[in-house]
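Section 3.1: Structural characterization of target chains.
Under the original work plan, the team committed to producing a structural model for every single-chain target entering the pipeline before any wet-lab resources were allocated. The record below documents one such target. The sequence was received from the expression subgroup and is listed exactly as submitted; it comprises 287 residues.
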Amino acid sequence: MRINIFTSESLKRLIHSASRMGILRALYQHSSLALIRHKAGKLLNPLFPNNPVWLTIEGGILAGSDICADLRHGEKSYWLGTFEMEVQSAIQRLATQSPHLKCIYDIGAHVGYFSMMLARCFQRAHIFAFEPNPSNYERLALNIQRNRLTCEVTPVHRAVCDQVGELPFYVGESSWSGSLHREHRESSRLQYTVSTTTLDEIVFQDHYPPPDLMKIDVEGAEVQVLRGGIGVLRKYKPTLILEIHYARTAEEVSAILRQIDYSLDTLTEGKDIGTSLYSGHVVARHT
């Protein structure tokens, strides 16, 4: 993978000024501006490098940290510190309520934005960051090294699901779009064969420390992750921050978790996990 540093001083000054004025942060922070953001992105994207670049995060919990981000292909909110603000708020609340957690799993870590955030918010915890996409994993490892987090965050180049072995992994136009879920097969532009494991295998066979908290973002494969970790969920009862990507999986996710005495609270305003129309983030806790 090729990683560049900005060479155009005028471009650097332009985006830095826009960031300082709060224009881009406001645009990428509010969901109500999604349409404007989409149109603005089409105009701005050609100005940005065609490869990932090193940047300093401008705001949010990770302000001041470095990140290798692909600005042309959808990662501007990483640089601005505005990515998934509802999840950032949930992490802050959990860190206030339970600051002494020892082990956290980031399943679907992408390039490590939330792995780094979890390390900053839970300073006594060790983070295991699971990412199967080879190019994402490379940047994940680089971001951990660049921010001197190698003692706090361990990258793991595997997919977590309900099978131990190997499975096809489908990648679409953006680096976020990779998934084991078959829904991605028709729209994928790349396909990899990736190593897979389960939560139960990780803890009971590979002897990783059990998680106190898990962030799960697996682009439609949420049910597979939960099915492969029923033993861990029953025994260790970790709190989950989980994104549900397809409305039709919401009922199945809810049924699996409620069967093992988890309650679910939505982070997406105005939506109810109890309906079949839900997609978005939830926090699940054992009751």
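The first helix runs from residue 9 to 20.
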